[in-house]
Amino acid sequence: MTMMQLKRHELTSSGAVFSTSAAIAVMFMGSTLVTPLYVLYQRDFGFSELTLTLVYAAYVIGNLVALLFLGRLSDLIGRRRTTLPAMAAAVVSTFLFLIADGTPWLFGGRIVSGFAIGIASGTCTAWLADLYPNADKSRASMVASGANFIGLAAGALAAGLLAQYAAKPLELPYLVYLAALFAVALMVWRTRETVERPVRSIREVSLRPRIGVPAGIRAQFVAPAATAFGTFAFIGFYAALVPSVLIDSLHETNHAVGGAMLFELCAVAVIAMIATHRLTSRAAMLCGLALLLPSAAMLVAAQFFASMPTLVIGTALGGIAVALGYRGSLQVVNQIAPTHQRAEVISSYLIVCYFSNALPVIGIGVISRVSGSMIASVAFGCTVAAFALLALITGAKYTPRSRAV
Q: What is the pTM of this model?
């Protein structure tokens, strides 16, 4: 291979990594685009705080359908042929939000959005792992994790700014998002396929659920799964309820501030991932779990004392915690997953992520309705702490030490 051919190959690989990570970012951008807009929908449609949490959590229905029935689809038909239809589903969900004139439309938009992200996230994470050499899965995991948080941050900040300072706050954010989707879809269409022998006929594709963890790695899977639960429950609280907390407990009504808090969490997470890239998967995961405990405590304290500085500091600490927890646990899963079952095992991990992103938020909504928001927040903090402790114990015992993945 000549130097010119080698250079062209390197540029092609670099472009493939960029377009695949951009697909992850733009898909997750859609999940937080609605975060600063919930309070506007609540005002216009007149639904309760409990309904707000249910709208947010409806996302997990689409996630589960996608991951249970289509979790290994890209292993069979190819990464590109799976990602592009997922992006088309994201376009459909965006149009549902655009035309929404009542709460049912929001439920529909969230379900379809969850379906689209459920397919694309597992597929593109596996695609990135394919694009890196076998010995360099750490970079693949870090790029996937960073792209996830960049998308979450961009969606929240853009929607918050547009909701506060632009005309048509319930339309313009979605129009901007549609433009981003189409631009990234074009890049994905030109990205090289990594599945060498995709099936040739749709009749060869089975829709039987094959989500699972091989028996040989189940003990090792517990720690990253418990880490994912605590981490994504924390993210879910910010994505669903922080704008309401700002209004109710801190009396802050600027919609841009609501988006900025989630942006801070995710932006700090990206910076933390870059700054700690030399940490092994095990060290990153355990450090993230340790930091999750004070982060949850500061979140509760900020509400109790109506303290914006406490919320800002707790959010920054939480950003470091979720970065290390997510990156470390995903790296462990990438390390222990058999090559021929990678998308299947990653999809199992993502099911835990999506459940934890939604179920604790529903619990907060129910407890808030019965006992008040402060008790609900304390219960949430205790739940996150319990899963963090479980993951610390199992992670210290079972997580591999020898390889930095």
A: 0.82
